């Protein structure tokens, strides 16, 4: 069982954990259902709410926290880096089921030397057009798993009220004094698309 993190907490990944390289970063969420959000279901016509398509992505940034190449955005339209350092395991269109909804494999030893920040974000696809937001999502989390033994290292439950927000900066893996660390961010935004989120880092 991994460590449960609080918002803003920073923890070591590689320091004191010799040999750690391949991580599975799992992100999960559930759509609020009629049984536990009757009012919302009523607003949407009393039946099952329209499916919400959340997309997990990774921004690979330099030391200054900026993009240097559009290829450094890993998402459903660019599932892997050419060097094999990051691989997105595919898009989940509904978020149904328990456990991770989308998974991203990170090989820390293969991350290019000029990349210092890996920002993990989740946005609702076509949120504005569909009138959807994170207030319609519950049980959201990001977790890190050591792929050597499939043991969960840490988990951050995104439990704040994110009503009206359409995108989420969930967490960050970053270099610090020659080691890798993880920061639990949990910052929601009103960006309407992945492209709008990415503009923050150009």
How much β-strand is present in the residues?
35-45%
Detail the poorly predicted runs. 35-47
Q: What quaternary form is this?
A: single chain
| CATH architecture term | Sandwich
* Domain module tally: 1
Q: Which descriptor suits the 3D outline?
A: globular
- Put simply, the count of helices is 3
Kindly report the CATH topology: Lipoxygenase-1
Order of strands, widest sheet? 1-10-9-3-7-6
User: What's the name of the CATH homologous superfamily?
Assistant: sav2460 like domains
The count of DSSP E runs of length 2 or more, i.e. the number of strands, is: 12
Percent of residues in helices:
under 10%
Radius of gyration: 17 Å
Tell me the structural class. mainly beta
User: Given this structure, which CATH class is correct?
Assistant: Mainly Beta
Q: Roughly how many Å apart are the termini?
A: 37 Å
H and E string: EEEHEEEEEHEEEEH
What characterizes the major β-sheet?
6 strands, mixed
Characterization of the model:
Helices cover 7% and strands 41% of the residues. It has 202 residues and is mainly beta. Strand 9 and strand 10 form a beta hairpin. The N and C termini lie far apart (37 Å). The protein has a single domain, classed as Lipoxygenase-1 (Sandwich). The protein is globular. It has helices spanning 38-43, 127-130, 194-198, and strands spanning 3-5, 10-12, 22-31, 54-61, 73-74, 86-88, 102-107, 117-124, 137-146, 151-158, 167-176, 179-189. The protein has a 6-stranded mixed β-sheet with strand order 1-10-9-3-7-6, with no helix packed on it. The protein has a 6-stranded antiparallel β-sheet with strand order 2-12-11-8-4-5. The protein is built from 3 helices and 12 strands; from the N terminus they run βββαβββββαββββα. Residues 35-47 have low confidence and may be disordered.
């Amino acid at each position: 069982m991994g460590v449960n993190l609080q918002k803003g907490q920073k923890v070591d990944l590689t320091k004191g954990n010799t040999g750690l390289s391949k991580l599975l970063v799992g992100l999960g969420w559930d759509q609020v259902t009629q049984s536990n959000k009757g009012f919302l279901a009523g607003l949407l016509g009393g039946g099952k709410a329209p499916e919400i398509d959340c997309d997990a992505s990774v921004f690979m940034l330099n030391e200054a926290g900026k993009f240097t190449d559009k290829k450094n955005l890993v998402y459903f339209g660019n599932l892997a880096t050419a060097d094999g350092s990051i691989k997105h395991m595919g898009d989940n269109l509904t978020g149904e089921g328990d456990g991770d909804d989308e998974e991203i494999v990170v090989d820390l030893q293969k991350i290019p030397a000029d990349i210092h920040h890996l920002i993990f974000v989740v946005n609702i696809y076509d949120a504005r057009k569909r009138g959807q937001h994170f207030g319609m999502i519950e049980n959201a989390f990001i977790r890190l798993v050591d792929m050597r033994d499939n043991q969960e290292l840490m988990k951050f439950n995104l439990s704040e009220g994110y009503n009206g927000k359409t995108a989420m900066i969930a967490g960050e893996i970053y270099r610090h004094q020659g080691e890798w660390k993880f920061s639990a961010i949990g910052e929601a935004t009103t960006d309407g698309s992945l492209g709008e989120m990415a503009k923050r880092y150009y």
